[in-house]
Amino acid sequence: MSVLEIILAIFIPPLAVALRFGLSSAFWINLLLTLLGGLPGIIHAFYVLTKK
Predict the structure, then answer these.
(1) CA 35, CA 45: separation in Å to the nearest integer?
(2) Where is the chain membrane-spanning (predicted)?
(3) What pLDDT does residue 1 have?
(4) Domain residues of the chain, as ranges?
(5) DSSP state of 2
(6) What is the model's pLDDT at position 10?
(7) Spatial distance between the Cα atoms of 52 and 39, rounded to a whole number of angstroms
(8) Distance from C-alpha of 14 to C-alpha of 27, rounded to nearest angstrom
(9) What is the chain's alpha carbon radius of gyration, rounded to the nearest angstrom?
(10) How many Å separate Cα 22 from the centre of its chain?
(11) 3-state secondary structure 8-42
């Protein structure tokens, strides 16, 4: 995980996921979680970016 991905995962989680995986299901889940609340989107972004 690069420094850019970490910064984006904190401030714009869907963009960080989209840069790594494109418009996949992980992106749409992250977008939904970010819209429902900022913290779930950030947690999901870090999970997805470190998992794969």
Answers:
(1) 13
(2) 28-49
(3) 75
(4) 3-51
(5) -
(6) 94
(7) 21
(8) 6
(9) 9
(10) 11
(11) HHHHCHHHHHHHHHCCCHHHHHHHHHHHHCHHHHH
Separation between Cα atoms, residue 51 and residue 19, nearest integer Å: 15
Q: What pTM value is reported for the model?
A: 0.86
Cα separations in angstroms, 50 against 18, 24, 36, 42? 14, 16, 22, 12
Question: For residues 33 and 44, is the Cβ–Cβ distance under 8 A?
Answer: yes
User: Contact at 8 Å (CB) between 5 and 47?
Assistant: no
* CA distance linking residue 29 with residue 26, whole number of Å: 5
41 vs 1, which has greater pLDDT? 41
pLDDT digit string, tens, across residues 2-52? 899 999 999 999 999 999 999 999 999 999 999 999 999 999 999 999 986
